[in-house]
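Example with several molecule types.
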Amino acid sequence: MVWEHYRTLSLPFESQAKPKRKYSITADILSYQRCPIQYGAFSTRKYEPSLSLELFYGDIIHQVLDQAHAHYNGKFDPSLRGTYPTDEDIERYFDEVENSLKARGLRATDKVRDKALNILKKFNEIEGPNLYNRILDTECKLQADRADYILHGNVDVLAVSEDDETEVEIWDYKGTDKPSINQPEYKQYEFQMQVYAELYRRKKGKPPKKAVLYFLNELDHVESNYRPQNAIMEVELNPSEVEVAMSNFDKTVGEIESCRDNNTWSYPETDPSEKTCDACDLRWNCQAAKNFGRNYRLIYP
Amino acid sequence: MTISETQLIKGIEEKNGHEFNDEQEKAIKYGNGPLWLVAGPGTGKSEVLVVRTLKLVCCDNVDPQSIILTTFTEKAARNLEERILESFLFLKNRYQELNDKDIDISQLRLGTLHSIMNDILQEQRFEIYQNTRLMDEIEAKMLIRSELASDIKNSQQHFQQEFQYLFGNFDNPNLWEWTRQLNKVFSFIVDHNIDLDNLKKEGGAWEELVTFYEKYEDLLNNRYSCDFSQLQKIFLNFLQSTQGELFLRGNIETGQPPITHVLVDEYQDTNPIQEEIYFQLTKYAPHNLTVVGDDDQALYRFRGGTVECMVNFGKRCELEWGLDIEPIFLNKNYRSDKKIIDWCNSYITSFDIMNQPNARISGKPELESGTDRDGNYKAVGYIKESSVAKLAKTFAETVHGLVENGIVEDYSQCVLLLHSTKNKPRIAGPYINALNQYNIPYYNPRSKAFLDQIEVKEFLGTLISILDPSLVITSSILGSKIVNMVEEWITFYESIKSQHQELKNYVEKSIEEINSLGTNERLTPNAQSILYRILSLSPFNEYQGNPEQDLRLSKVTRLFEAFSSQIGYRSLFTDKEVPGQVSRKWLEKFYYVFCGYLQTHGMDDDEDEEVICPKGMLPIMTIHQAKGLEFDFVFVGSLGKKPKIGGSHYLEHSLASFHSDTPVLDPEEAAWQDSIRLHYVAYSRAKYALIPLVTSSQLRNSGNQTASFGQLGGRWFRSNLKRL
Ligand code: SF4
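Resulting structure tokens for the full complex:
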């Protein structure tokens, strides 16, 4: 027998250390916290969701704002450096982004489209003059090496503090209304900002002075040129809060890892919200949604 | 604060438990200027790359953001990242000095060249790349098939004749065959950095090619899309722009530091446009471009790679920068038993064709054993049988014996390397049968067996039963292969519907609903959502409990998304003329583009992104997949074949006249060299035992029939190696 030639050998199995996984603060941790089942299907089991209006909305808002910042920065045209984008500029950036989404077959209804555009113009008008000149960096990448995983996130905006030039603020845009204090998102967004602040501190050696969430949908309801009160939520940053937020994320990652290992995804503990379920491809046969009193009847085809 | 090079080396040596050899240390410490590092198999090249990167950061105080480090695959990038991080943390613990300053090692620009280019273009907001989406190969092909192939096929006059070699045996290639080849040629002219004006001047087929290519580029622009090859072109444009200048030199306003160091792994598989990119990235003195690779292990000519970039790196540095550099050779192999190393050396040097100019880097020393491990057993020995079936049986029996007798602990310590891993009778089929007989579990994700799985057939059968219950399109215009495939799927649905009442109801009610509509009425804003309604019903919701079936079902949704994004719309309407029927136009696209892709390309299962081979299973791999890996026992099958001259060989040859510098081999010679390198990679994977599997008739092949056995062929092989 051939194997007999190797009788003298005895080679142990050396398991290869699995590399640490990377977890994104928004795409992994927050979306798992929203609904583990949905997260499991679309992030780990690699189902491709039927792309919805929501994607259109979030994408377009972030991209246009980013281009408004780049405009002010002179990234597109150095001669425009320091000039504020006009309504027409915003429209133009909006059209470009919209066309690129259309090319992939993603179309919004007129209502959604107009709302997004309106919000962007309002933002540009209300916040631009006071914000763009303070911006240090956009889509700033942060990362931290945790014991069992690597945590990373993108901060939408890093800006010089209004009243102290040596300090920095972090801003994050949300394409939603401000959640009320008893909605789960409220706490999750707070955690998110606290963790960003911590990652920022580790990178730069000094924490940001402020962490600001901006709820763009609030702009849709205003007629005036003033920032509505609810548009902004400032998150308190103190070391003990930050600690709690970090350990909350560690715990979530631990849960995700064990779900992955066992290949079962637990039901959400808190209601993922009607809007989330309404847009979820899994709703046709979802026990968790039923537990929250949502029954979706099959439609044909 | 920084640490000294001596501290760095000492620290890492402590961590590894062994010392670096002189050449390794020289490469790690190498100062400014281009570094040409030629590293044979098993010579510790990745470790050198890791430590050299750390030397830049920890000893030379280079900002991690100033360093670009590219690898060939995502997997390799993750692996390198992990190793750098781990060693860095070790050094931080070991040396207090490194804790004074906060070094953010995660800011290294590390990844495949494509991912790095994409990141940089986005980060720098390069305007023509704003809103552009990077497509994968499937999407690019679906786009060409959906929007271009038919026009091109109908309008071309010289193309097919000139490029007959691409179409092989097809006299009347179908549109998918056209798609495949157009995709290849389009990529090739970009990868080889061909000047389109030169092509145009040539007239005839070449001019036609440029016209077609420009159409493709326009289409990409209209679609706000870009493919992998285009990305390189855009990036090169970026580097030559003012924005690019600012990026390379650093931007004081944003605080982004300049790019000062570029390190490239697997440089032997670099293509000419990438070579250009690397030289542009390091165009400012002192030109800190480190290239690492092995000319003998170049495997990717079919993807545009040209080993000449590696072989001629010295000349290119001389030409561009007037620098005279010598390669550093890593030739101490720490992987294999001495007899395996000796075999690899004598194998590759046996060929005259490898001694030609441009084939290998001149002055390259032979591999030497770094461990002097020389077991008193047959470390290289072949198994010979009269047929492949018998060979497969002996192979399985051997693997079984190795594990059963504790020679290896786990199946995954062995590997079977084949020229293709398709589960077909003439390819991997016999080996799979034999493994099954011995109850040996195997891991073979690239078996193209995706479409043979019941869950896939039932799923697609159900979908088509709803959308095209009377198969209005198929009978009249579809090619017979697609029709057969689709009809088979439908029989799969038919066979399960009686046991799955809910599914049957859903299908029937959906058909009724569609029938009740008039012309041009919307059925759904998003066709993909139908897939999810099907998946919510039995038996599909049960299949989802099985991880393998689940992954295949999810793959169908991914393919469907690729299809939807390439045809450019997602909503589904009834036909414009015939009431109560799904749009004929959509159905045609669905059959030709989506089903056509599946029919012509087949589909592999997804590979596990995290493990190379799951514990407890024997991996069956192609040699390409095995690149960079090592196994205790390596079995190599599919030997004795004649080197195949492929489209890429001819294409490279005929394009040679359009780009200047390197002389290009004739296609046959190139094919031989590639085949030799492929065997060399296979043979050098083995740590303890290399076991070629040959049939008597394969072994009768001479050195001008096959590259498997060395220049002197099967007879020489027989007299030099032992039969087991
Ligand atoms: S339907 Fe709601 S509960 Fe169910 S998976 Fe989707 S989001 Fe979660």
